[in-house]
Design brief:
30% of the residues lie in helices and 18% in strands. With 637 residues, it is α+β, with helices and mostly antiparallel strands. Among the domains are: 81 residues; 49 residues, no CATH class; 108 residues, Acid Proteases (Cathepsin D, subunit A, domain 1, Beta Barrel); 166 residues, HIV Type 1 Reverse Transcriptase, subunit A, domain 1 (HIV Type 1 Reverse Transcriptase, Chain A, domain 1). The strands form 9 sheets. Strands 11-14-13-9-10-15 form a 6-stranded mixed beta sheet. A 3-stranded antiparallel beta sheet has the order 1-2-3. A hairpin with a 2-residue loop joins β1 and β2. The longest helix has 35 residues. The radius of gyration is 41 Å and the shape is flat. The N terminus is likely disordered.
Length: 637
């Protein structure tokens, strides 16, 4: 039955639930008061089964009911849980339960009534969807609106239905792909070892900075507008034109302004005393008015005009307005032309000129001398850009800019050149270089995926066939058996995992028999992935007894000569290259090392052996001998 009580101004409705003891105790003569126990349960919001995203809301609703209310009131009986669930869910969900088959809702002999009902409702609200469809939807999820946290939550909710092998990595990849900020995306792409938490922290910081920046810009804009209305006109400039005076308060209601000069009308002495009388407009060129009150729509005339009264010419200059800006450009200026520099011969307004194609330049640069030699020298326009040479804080002098036609082979493109007072080589910026096909834009290097065609080759570590290396050991050197170097306890599990992996790959095995040589381990966490260890064997003592082999190592100049003229390249990178070469059985005893799990020795050539580099290089050279266009080179990453 239901009851309610009032605490202050709040009415709390509760459900009084009678808990009956088992039948056997009732038969022993206990009274009704002794057999029942009154429990006051709070009200719980019913479940809305008709709104959207019902599957997600159902999972949250039943989880909170189970983990909060049932735990708080110590409700453990499964039948009571089922009864309370049906009591709280509401009429809509009860209708759904009644429509389900009895085989889905009625528990078996060993089944929980509550869990059976919850499982049936889970299947009802979460119908089985093919994981490929879910993955497709997951891949196309992007951060259109909201914060990065909301996007991350959506990905986490969708990931279980996709059945990913590594959901954490998939969520991180989609966060990078689908995030709205280009800066955040580039951060994730340039830092592959960044964790999800680090990525989210960086994204939150960027979003917060962006919000604060917009707020500051908004406040500055408001201050600028206020200052513009209150500021006094500068010396030599007219007051605000009549067209803009409508928004400003006036001291006199019936104040009239002159249509020619913009000042108060009428003028003392008549129209001839107007400051604009016999003056020429700098905008349209007509007489008897100023540009501030010019009604002409032709505001683009930039020609030089002559004033009859002053007897001298006036040159039109760049008009500074709200949209005008002075940009800083950085270019690489060079006066030395080397053989490896990208120098091309082009036509600039039909004049042959050697130019440098610079992918780092933001503008096209032409020295003054070459500009003066152009057959049809165009007129210079005023340029407000500041151009800085590479690694210099002093801008170079810019005389102006002009539009020209630049040609290379059969390609012709319009380009803007800025004329400077230098004697260096002309520079073509990145945009123009790409348009003329002087430089090629490479976004990525594509490679064919052959792993799916030959999966057996890419499994495990691999081993060079029919090849073993033998260590030349000086038996006159006294063997040294180092004792085990103890490591921090928290690294033991990681080391055990590493040892098991190496045994599975066939790199090491358990040491048996006599062990005259025993080397210690040097273990450090990997800087970019602290959960993994870099395990090295200290081979300094055994190396005193190992005689080195001497083989020639090719230089980069030799490789460049062999590859001269090649257009297409393929690279095969050997992972754990030394460990892919088998070690002779008689040489393995000297590689024994100690761990907290016992002694182990290498079955493959190991890192740390003083002659490993030469032996590995020679083994690969022999394998590739006779193949045209194939070279090998060792590089320690």
């Amino acid at each position: 039955m239901y009851t309610s009580s009032r605490f202050g101004n709040t009415v709390v409705q509760c459900i009084r639930y009678r808990h009956w003891s088992d039948t056997s105790r009732a038969k022993e003569g206990m009274t009704e008061c002794e057999r029942q126990k009154d429990i006051m349960l709070p009200s719980y919001p019913p479940f809305d089964a008709k709104s959207e995203e019902v599957a997600v809301r159902w999972s949250k609703w039943v989880s909170r009911l189970t983990n909060n209310l049932f735990v708080a009131y110590d409700i453990t009986d499964e039948s009571r849980k089922k009864a309370l669930l049906l009591t709280y869910v509401g009429n809509d969900l009860n209708d759904i339960v009644e429509s389900l088959p009895d085989s889905e809702t009625q528990p078996g002999a060993d089944e929980s009534p509550f869990e059976k009902l919850v499982s049936a409702l889970n299947r009802h609200f979460n119908p089985k969807v093919k994981k490929e469809i879910q993955r497709y939807a997951f891949r196309h999820l992007h951060q259109t609106t909201g914060l990065i946290e909301d996007f991350h939550t959506s990905l986490r909710q969708m990931a279980p239905s996709c059945e990913f092998t590594n959901p954490g990595e998939e969520i991180k990849s989609q966060l990078i792909t689908g995030c709205r900020s280009r800066k955040v995306r580039e951060k994730g792409l340039n830092n592959p070892n960044m964790t999800v938490n680090d990525f989210l922290q960086f994204a939150r910081t960027c979003e917060l900075t962006q919000r604060h920046s917009k707020q500051v810009e908004k406040e500055i804009s408001s201050v600028q507008k206020l200052t513009q209305h209150r500021s006094r006109p500068q010396s030599g400039a007219w007051k605000t034109p009549a067209a803009n005076r409508k928004s400003q308060p006036t001291l006199e209601k019936n104040l009239k302004l002159c249509n020619n000069c913009g000042r108060q009308w009428p003028h003392e002495g008549g129209q001839k005393n107007c400051p604009a009388f016999n003056k020429f407009c700098n905008s349209c060129g007509k007489a008897n008015h100023f540009a501030t009150v010019c009604k002409s729509k032709n505001m683009q005339s930039k020609q030089q005009r002559q004033s009859p009264q002053q007897g001298k010419t006036k040159q039109r200059v760049h008009n500074i307005n709200e949209d005008s800006s002075s940009e800083d450009d950085y270019v690489f200026m060079t006066s030395i032309i080397g053989k490896d520099m990208p120098i091309f011969e082009v036509l600039i307004n039909e004049r042959k000129t050697k130019v440098l194609a610079d992918s780092g330049a933001g503008v096209n640069i032409l020295p003054e001398k070459i500009y003066n030699d152009l057959p049809s020298k165009p007129q210079l326009q005023v340029c407000n850009n500041k151009i800085y040479p590479f690694s210099s804080s002093q801008p170079i002098t810019v005389l102006g800019k002009f539009q020209a036609t630049i040609e290379h082979k059969s390609i012709s493109e319009p380009a803007t050149f800025e004329v400077v007072k230098t004697s260096e080589t002309p520079i073509i910026d990145w945009k123009t270089s790409v348009e003329l096909q002087l430089l090629q834009k490479v976004n990525k290097v594509e490679s064919d995926d052959i792993q799916s065609d030959f999966p057996e080759i890419f499994q495990g570590l691999g081993k060079l066939k029919d090849h073993k290396v033998k260590l030349h050991i000086d038996h006159t050197v006294q063997p040294v058996a180092h004792r085990y170097r103890r490591i921090p306890f928290h690294m033991c599990k990681q080391l055990e995992k590493h040892i098991d992996k190496e045994i599975e790959l066939g790199v090491i095995k358990k040491a048996t028999g006599a062990t005259p040589w025993v080397s210690p381990l040097v273990i450090v966490p990997k800087p970019k992935n602290p959960d993994e260890l870099r395990v090295c064997v200290d081979m300094r003592a055994p190396n005193t007894a190992i005689r080195r082999e001497r083989h020639n190592m090719p230089t980069l100049d030799e490789l460049s000569t062999l590859l001269a003229g090649a257009s297409y390249f393929s690279k095969l990178d050997l992972n754990q290259g030394y460990n892919q070469i088998e070690l002779d059985e008689e040489s393995r005893y000297i590689t024994t090392f100690a761990t907290h799990m016992g002694l182990y020795r290498f079955k493959r050539l190991n890192f740390g052996v003083n002659s490993a580099a030469e032996m590995f290089q020679e083994a690969i050279r022999q394998s590739l001998n006779g193949l045209n266009g194939v070279v090998n080179f060792s590089a320690d990453k």
